[in-house]
Structure formats: C-alpha cells, structure tokens
C-alpha cells in the first residue's frame, strides 16, 4: 500500500470535521454533499476486500428511495450479496477516521482481516441517476486507483444489476454474462420460455403500467422492453424526463402513503406497479370500479409466488423444501394465509435484506419478501441439480413442472431483490394462471395498518429482540405496548430504531383503520414518554 499517495489523494476528498456516519442496513446514506470522502474511502475498502476475497467486489452509488438530494454507497460481496457484517464495521471505522489517522486505519483493517496486499484487486462500479452520482462514483474510482486496484465502471445501473454483474464475474460467467445485454438476455429468455404457453393461448395481449420513480428503472426498462414484447407490453410513467426522483412517486411512496403515485393515469382495474429509485423494490396496485385504491405489497407478492412454486413442487413430488421469510412488518393476514391456508412454513427475521436472504438460504427454495416490496427467491445448489435433472429425465408432467421451475428460478435475481425480475415473474404467473389483479388481491384481506415515526434524542436507547417484535430496553416500554395492544381486536404493534433515519419507527395493525390509528398513536406516545422523545409530542390523527 502506498500510504503516502493515499494521504495525498485523501486531502482532495477531505472529511468534514466532526462528521460521523455509520454503515447501516443499506450502506452509508446522507446528503450528497457530505459523502465525497466516504466514496473515496469505500474505493479504498473495496480494494482491500477484493484482495482479501481474491474476487471482484462491487460498489454501488445510490440512495435508493431517499430524496434526490441524498446519496449513498454500498459494497457488494463476491456472490453478489450484501457486505459481510465484520466488514461493515471496517467500513464505519474507515469512513469516520480523521485525515491523519487514515493510513493507520487502513493498516489495521488489513491486519485484522488478514488481507494479502500482494493480491490483485478488481472493483466494479455502478450508479443511479441522481445528479450527484457521477461525481461521487469518480471519487470511488480515485480510491480504487490510488491503492492500485483495477476497475470497470458500468455507469448507470440498477442496484440489482450491479449485484448481478459481481456474481457473474465471480462465477466465471456461469451465472450469466457480466454485461447489461447479458442481464437482459438471461431474464428475457427465461420469461419468453415460461410464458410461451400462456401467451400463445391467444387471449392475452397484456399491458402493465410502471411508475419508475423518475429513476434508473425507467432507463433500464426502456432498453429492455422490446425483449419481452409482444407478450407483455409495459408503459412507463415517471420516467425521469420531467419529475424529481422519488418525489410523490415510487414504491416507497405508494407503500407508505397507501395511495397511487402522481404522474400515472390509472383506469379502473388496470394493473399498475411502482419501482423505487434504484429498482430493487416493487409494489403493485389498482383502482377498483368504485375508484377505491388497492395496494398489493411485498407480502401479497410473496404469497402469489410461493403458492405457484408450491404447486410446481407438488407436481414434482420430490420432497424439496419451501420456506417463506418475512419481517415483523408483514401484514398479519399474510402470515396467517401462508401458514394456515397454504401450509407453508413462515419465518420472521430482522428488517434488512441481508437478514432475510440469510434465512432463505436454509431451504431448497427460499422465498423472501419485505412488505415494502423488496425480495426474491433463492434456490439451493442441491435443489438446482435435482430440478435440472428432472427437467431432462422424468416423465411428461413432472418434466413440465421442473422446466417451469427452472425458468422461474432463472428469472429471479439470486443475489438480491430486483424489481425488474420480480415484475417479470409476477406477470408470468398471472398469465399462466389466468389471474386478474383483483383475483390476486382477493387471496386475503390485509389488516388495516399504520406506520409512524417518533423523534427521540438517541434512538439507540431502544433495543429489541425476537426479530424486532419485542422491546427489551428501555424498561417498561414493552409492558406499555402490551397493555395498549390488549385494548383492540386482531391487534399487534412493535417499535424499532430505524437503520436508515434518525427516528424510531412504530407499526400497528388492528381490526379497523380507526382502531389501528388509535393504537399507533398511543404506542408513539409511549415511545415518546419512555424513550426520550424530542420536539413535538405525537398527535392523535397525525
Ligand atoms: C433498507 C433496506 C431495506 C429495509 C429498510 C429499512 C436493504 C438493501 N435495504 O432500505 O431492506 O426495509 O432499509 O429501513 O437492505 P429502516 O431501518 O429505516 O426502517
Ligand atoms: Mg432500493
């Protein structure tokens, strides 16, 4: 390591005095103007991680669904997964080191992580459409080069596309070709193969309206859409030509406000969906004939997908295990439906893709989705081999099911939730089953739910257990929540410190919207009183 060169370059990417940031659930995220030094340093870190793993590492510049003024960065590990937890700590140390300590911290990390400094390093970089992203990704490149790493800058990519590229490169192309074209081809050929049967029935020229949150999803879908037409025709809205990124649109807006985005024309019973700003989340929705809005969130997406997979597995009859992974935010009705009607085992993990991903790897086929629309399906190596074999050798019906399963799995991004691939899987299943969006929605009825935010002086005073469903600290808060929950029917509530914002999140559900709102308000008040609330007290009726 040429530490003198690092010191010299680092001056050009100076850390603002006193700024402390943390590598959170989704990497570093804050106002773009505070991130230059972090980008440079993540370039450095990516080189060390690449040397240590002897693999290509990814760096993605994005702040996902956050406002356009924000930005962020996360590292992608060799198998296209989120950065390992021990390296999250290294990332935090490196980002917060004062200028003069930077060389020492680099040496420390290299020693602690037993990095072989003589190894070559290779880093691939992607970025979203934020105005600040290009400059910030240049700072990443500066960091990579000063430590002698090689790099390839993919430029504009969705987050899942960058994860895909990393995995392709580290699997010697076995997972796919590490180009945007390769990504389109992999997904679209699986989609076309899978839907051949449905679309040639002739009943369907299917149109889907997509709100692209004025983000990268619009560019990539526009490039891709001719690959799967005429079977599926997608109409893009909020494509970034006019509106601001994530402003009054996108998956996060639709899910949290439970209303349609601006900038999309919805006619009764038309199927619509929204991506988030870096296209790793998707939610569906429609207006019914009475003009009422219906949201189909990640839970209902998981239900559609897992019931289809379960049918295929029954057909194959080879005892492959299927599991669904959710978080505490999953609507109670979805969990009940999956467990009691579909008889599929359901597990709950902490919020954040890495936790769900990890759990889903325990099954032959692991379906994981957050209610916010982030999710995918993972297939174990053993199951893959078995399915491939069945697709070749077994008798007709079994072979058909195995082939279908093979195509579905090819369609899913195995590295992380991917709005584009999820969309294609959903469209394929709806077409194959001949389901309308209303029929899908009618699988079960969501319990009314409400999410609120509470400002506290220090959100770390709250700690939780049981996949964030129970508070252990501060004392008395869980008892207070228990007492409040008891007042309502079909009720449930939990609180947790956000991993991405300086707030505490409150979730409540109950038998009616009115009761849900009361419960959410009362729990917010308990948090405010028992966990050091600051600013305005929570208000009834918000
Ligand atoms: C990040 C996570 C998302 C999670 C959200 C929770 C990834 C790639 N993204 O966006 O999964 O739902 O954070 O945010 O892991 P919160 O901690 O502020 O509620
Ligand atoms: Mg995102």
Q: What is the CATH architecture descriptor of the domain at 3-156?
A: 3-Layer(aba) Sandwich
Oligomerization state: single chain
The coarse silhouette is globular
Helix content: 40-55%
Strand pairing plus helix content: what structural class? alpha/beta
CATH topology of the domain at 3-156: Alpha-D-Glucose-1,6-Bisphosphate, Chain A, domain 3
- Please describe the biggest sheet, giving its number of strands, its sense, and whether it closes into a barrel: 5 strands, mixed
Domain Phosphoacetylglucosamine mutase AMG1: 178-283, 297-434
InterPro entries: A-D-PHexomutase_a/b/a-I, A-D-PHexomutase_a/b/a-I/II/III, A-D-PHexomutase_C, A-D-PHexomutase_C_sf, A-D-PHexomutase_CS, AMG1_II, AMG1_III, PAGM
Family: Belongs to the phosphohexose mutase family.
Pathway: Nucleotide-sugar biosynthesis; UDP-N-acetyl-alpha-D-glucosamine biosynthesis; N-acetyl-alpha-D-glucosamine 1-phosphate from alpha-D-glucosamine 6-phosphate (route I): step 2/2
Describe it.
The protein is α/β, with parallel strands linked by helices and 542 residues long. It is built from 18 helices and 19 strands. Among the domains are: 154 residues, Alpha-D-Glucose-1,6-Bisphosphate, Chain A, domain 3 (3-Layer(aba) Sandwich); 104 residues, 3-Layer(aba) Sandwich (Alpha-D-Glucose-1,6-Bisphosphate, Chain A, domain 3); 83 residues, TATA-Binding Protein (2-Layer Sandwich). Helices cover 43% and strands 19% of the residues. Strand 16 and strand 17 form a beta hairpin. The site of magnesium ion has 6 residues, from loops.
């Amino acid at each position: 390591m040429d530490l003198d060169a690092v010191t010299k370059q680092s001056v050009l990417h100076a850390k603002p005095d006193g700024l402390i940031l943390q590598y959170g659930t989704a990497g570093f995220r804050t106002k773009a103007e505070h991130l230059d030094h972090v980008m440079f340093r993540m370039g450095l870190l990516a080189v060390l991680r690449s040397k240590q793993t002897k693999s290509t590492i990814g760096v993605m510049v994005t702040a996902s669904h956050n406002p356009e003024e924000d930005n962020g960065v996360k590292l992608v590990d060799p198998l296209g997964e989120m950065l390992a937890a021990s390296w999250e700590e290294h990332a935090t140390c490196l980002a917060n080191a004062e200028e003069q300590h930077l060389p020492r911290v680099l040496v420390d990390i290299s020693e602690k992580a037993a990095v072989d400094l003589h190894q070559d390093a290779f880093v691939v970089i992607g970025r979203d459409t934020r105005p600040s992203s290009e400059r910030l990704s240049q700072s990443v490149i500066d960091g990579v080069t000063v430590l002698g790493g090689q790099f390839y800058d993919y430029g504009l990519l969705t987050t899942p596309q960058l994860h895909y590229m990393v995995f392709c490169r580290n699997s010697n192309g076995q997972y796919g070709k590490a180009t945007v074209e390769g990504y389109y081809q992999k997904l679209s050929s699986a989609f076309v193969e899978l839907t051949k049967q449905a679309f040639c029935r002739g009943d369907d020229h299917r149109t889907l309206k997509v709100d692209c949150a004025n983000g990268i999803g619009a560019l990539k879908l526009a490039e891709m859409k001719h690959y799967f037409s005429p079977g599926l025709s997608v109409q893009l809205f909020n494509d970034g030509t006019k509106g601001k990124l994530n402003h009054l649109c996108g998956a996060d807006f639709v899910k949290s406000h439970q209303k349609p985005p601006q900038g999309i024309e919805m006619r009764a019973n038309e199927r619509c969906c929204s991506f988030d700003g870096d296209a790793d989340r998707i939610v569906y929705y429609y207006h019914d004939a009475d003009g009422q809005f219906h949201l189909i969130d990640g839970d209902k997406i998981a239900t559609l997908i897992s019931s289809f997979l379960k049918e295929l597995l029954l057909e194959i009859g080879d005892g492959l295990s299927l599991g669904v992974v959710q978080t505490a935010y999953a609507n109670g009705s979805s969990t009940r439906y999956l467990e009691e009607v579909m008889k599929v085992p359901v597990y709950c993990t902490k919020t954040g893709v890495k936790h769900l991903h990890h759990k889903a790897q325990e099954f032959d086929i692991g379906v994981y989705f957050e209610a916010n629309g982030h999710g995918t399906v993972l297939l174990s190596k053993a199951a893959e081999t078995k399915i491939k074999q069945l697709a070749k050798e077994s008798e007709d019906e079994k072979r058909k099911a195995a082939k279908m399963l093979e195509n579905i799995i090819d369609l899913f991004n195995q590295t992380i939730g991917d709005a584009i691939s999820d969309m294609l899987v959903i469209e394929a299943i709806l077409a194959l089953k001949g389901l309308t969006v209303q029929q899908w929605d009618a699988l079960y009825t969501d319990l009314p739910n409400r999410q609120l935010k509470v400002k506290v002086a220090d959100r770390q005073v709250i700690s939780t257990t049981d996949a964030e469903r129970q508070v252990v600290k501060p004392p008395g808060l869980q008892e207070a929540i228990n007492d409040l929950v008891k007042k309502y029917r079909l009720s449930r509530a939990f609180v947790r410190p956000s991993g991405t914002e300086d707030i505490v999140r409150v979730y409540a559900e109950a038998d009616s919207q009115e009761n849900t709102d009361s419960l959410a308000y009362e729990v917010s008040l308990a948090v405010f009183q028992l966990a050091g609330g600051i600013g305005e007290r929570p208000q009834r009726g918000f």
